[in-house]
From TrEMBL:
<dbReference type="GO" id="GO:0051266">
    <property type="term" value="F:sirohydrochlorin ferrochelatase activity"/>
</dbReference>
<dbReference type="InterPro" id="IPR006366">
    <property type="entry name" value="CobA/CysG_C"/>
</dbReference>
<keyword id="KW-0808">Transferase</keyword>
<dbReference type="InterPro" id="IPR014776">
    <property type="entry name" value="4pyrrole_Mease_sub2"/>
</dbReference>
<dbReference type="InterPro" id="IPR036291">
    <property type="entry name" value="NAD(P)-bd_dom_sf"/>
</dbReference>
<feature type="binding site">
    <location>
        <begin position="330"/>
        <end position="331"/>
    </location>
    <ligand>
        <name>S-adenosyl-L-methionine</name>
    </ligand>
</feature>
<dbReference type="InterPro" id="IPR006367">
    <property type="entry name" value="Sirohaem_synthase_N"/>
</dbReference>
<feature type="domain" description="Sirohaem synthase dimerisation">
    <location>
        <begin position="150"/>
        <end position="206"/>
    </location>
</feature>
<feature type="active site" description="Proton acceptor">
    <location>
        <position position="247"/>
    </location>
</feature>
<dbReference type="Pfam" id="PF00590">
    <property type="entry name" value="TP_methylase"/>
</dbReference>
<dbReference type="InterPro" id="IPR037115">
    <property type="entry name" value="Sirohaem_synt_dimer_dom_sf"/>
</dbReference>
<dbReference type="InterPro" id="IPR012409">
    <property type="entry name" value="Sirohaem_synth"/>
</dbReference>
<dbReference type="InterPro" id="IPR028281">
    <property type="entry name" value="Sirohaem_synthase_central"/>
</dbReference>
<comment type="pathway">
    <text>Porphyrin-containing compound metabolism; siroheme biosynthesis; sirohydrochlorin from precorrin-2: step 1/1.</text>
</comment>
<feature type="domain" description="Siroheme synthase central">
    <location>
        <begin position="120"/>
        <end position="145"/>
    </location>
</feature>
<dbReference type="Pfam" id="PF13241">
    <property type="entry name" value="NAD_binding_7"/>
</dbReference>
<dbReference type="Pfam" id="PF14824">
    <property type="entry name" value="Sirohm_synth_M"/>
</dbReference>
């Protein structure tokens, strides 16, 4: 180990920064955030540093470095573009046994600045001992994604309760088990939901009872397919889950991000295939939560847009199960963006309507006369099976047969296909598209030819009205 990781308390301690440029400004900002009393030696100050000086947030000690300036200093930073001066600062600091950092010069550093994940009072530092700072920053970015912003509040509250927990639980093992349960249970979920009073009450209850907590359910939108579109909050939820109930539309790439020891249960529904009844899924959510488990209900797209998320939450509410919701990128937003089709455009579409192709059997509930009006975009989920009926209804109610349309199969995924044509060809295109498919009807669909960007193919798949069975080109984004 080249460096011993130490978290230094700099509050009200004098720190000398030699240099007043942009690099020095970054270090000064970090020092101020830690409460240091910053002294600067520099010929001139960059705008950002000068503003801090004008606000009296820092002290401009002198323009020229002198070794006597180190006499009462806790640690030193050299951040100039003068290598001779930097070496002089390093030598003088070493002689006085002051910790010193020469920026971007590991050989002249008795301490180094790590990449920091700040969830104060919880702080995570990553260092490569100056060998690969970019790699350290990349690791920090991954940790930023995994660590909820609410962790700082969790740690702050836990610190305030430590003495009470020690009084109630006499042994170290009891306290360890208690905090493990608290940090992985409803208390942390309540803090994440910004329900601080309820979180405090949960902590009080768990301490008084010293028993396992009731589980909870987090409804998470997985997005349209690309694992990169899963939200940070969604990633955090599936990393903390005991069990994940997921749809068939959730991709393997996203499921691979689930905590490895979590149980995964597929409760998906697919046309023409065996599926789990919604009522069975609802009861399973309740059962698992009552067992004290942290449950994630992982749904493709967004759970509140044709995902029946509201129905599942009603069941949980009736059973008294705590829950929260993490929205996801819905297919209409994600798939069209990856296909280069803006849902709205000043020249072509002033509104967009999301429609499901799966309505209740007794009625489709759609106002076809309104939907057939021009200069609007229709984004139709699960509509491939009923594409013929949709095509007929729209044309019958006045939508032009030449209206541009697109069928986006497996949107945002590596094998995405975008089939474009006219409304008269909708049924034929829908039959050819891979599942799941999104139907896009409206003038904006024609922009796919100009705005397509995802994938390496330079061709576009277009079905001409006078050649309903001939393909001019194929977009197969594999």
């Amino acid at each position: 180990m080249d460096y011993l990781p130490i978290f230094a308390d700099l509050k009200h301690r004098p720190v000398l920064v030699v240099g007043g440029g942009e690099v020095a400004a970054r270090k000064i900002s970090l020092l101020l955030s830690a409460g240091a009393d910053v002294y600067v030696v520099a010929q001139s100050l960059a705008d950002e540093v000068n503003q801090l000086h004008q606000k009296q947030s820092i002290h401009w000690l002198a323009k020229v470095f002198d070794v006597t300036q180190l006499d009462d200093i806790f640690l030193v930073i050299a951040a100039t573009n003068n290598s001779t001066l930097n070496a002089q600062v390093f030598q003088a600091a070493n002689q006085r046994r002051r910790l010193v950092n020469v920026v971007d010069d590991p050989a002249r550093c008795s301490f180094i600045f790590p990449s920091i994940v700040d969830r104060s009072p919880l702080v995570v530092a990553v260092s490569s001992a100056g060998k690969a700072p970019v790699l350290a920053r990349l690791l920090r970015e991954k940790l930023e994604a995994l660590l909820p912003a609410s962790l700082g509040t969790v740690a702050e509250i836990a610190g305030n309760w430590r003495d009470r927990v020690k009084q109630r639980l006499s042994t170290l093992s009891e306290r360890r088990r208690f905090w493990e349960r608290i940090f992985n249970g409803r208390f942390a979920a309540l803090v994440a939901a910004n329900r601080i009073d309820d979180a405090q009450a949960e902590l009080e209850f768990q301490l008084s009872q010293n028993q396992g907590q009731t589980g909870d359910v987090t409804l998470v939108g997985a997005g349209p397919g690309d694992a990169g579109l899963l939200t940070l909050r969604g990633l955090q939820a599936i990393q903390q889950a005991d069990v994940v109930l997921h749809d068939s539309l959730v991709t393997d790439e996203i499921l691979a991000l689930v905590r490895r020891d979590a149980e995964q249960i597929c409760v998906g529904k697919r046309a023409g295939a065996h599926s789990v009844a919604q009522e069975e899924t609802n009861q399973l959510l309740v059962k698992l939560a009552l067992e004290g488990k942290r449950v994630v209900r992982l749904k493709g797209g967004d759970p509140f847009i044709f995902g029946r998320g509201g129905e599942e939450l009603e069941v949980l509410a009736d059973a008294g199960i705590p829950f929260q919701v993490v929205p996801g990128i819905t297919a209409a937003a994600g798939a069209t963006a990856y296909a280069g089709i803006p849902l709205t455009h000043r020249d072509y579409s002033q509104s967009v309507t999301f429609i499901t192709g799966h309505c209740r059997p007794e009625s489709d509930g759609l106002n076809w006369s309104q939907l057939a009006q021009g200069h609007q975009t229709l984004a139709i989920y699960m509509g491939a099976v009923k594409a013929s009926d949709i095509q007929q209804q729209l044309i019958t109610h006045g939508r032009s047969p030449s209206t541009p349309i697109a069928v986006i199969g497996r949107g945002t995924r590596a094998d995405q296909q975008v089939l474009t044509g006219t409304l008269l060809q909708l049924d034929d295109l829908a039959k050819r598209a891979p599942s799941p498919a999104l139907l896009v009807i409206g003038e904006v669909a024609a922009l796919h030819q100009r705005l397509s960007w995802f994938g390496e193919s330079a061709h576009h798949q277009t079905l001409q009205q006078n050649q309903p069975t001939q393909w001019q080109s194929v977009v197969n984004l594999a």
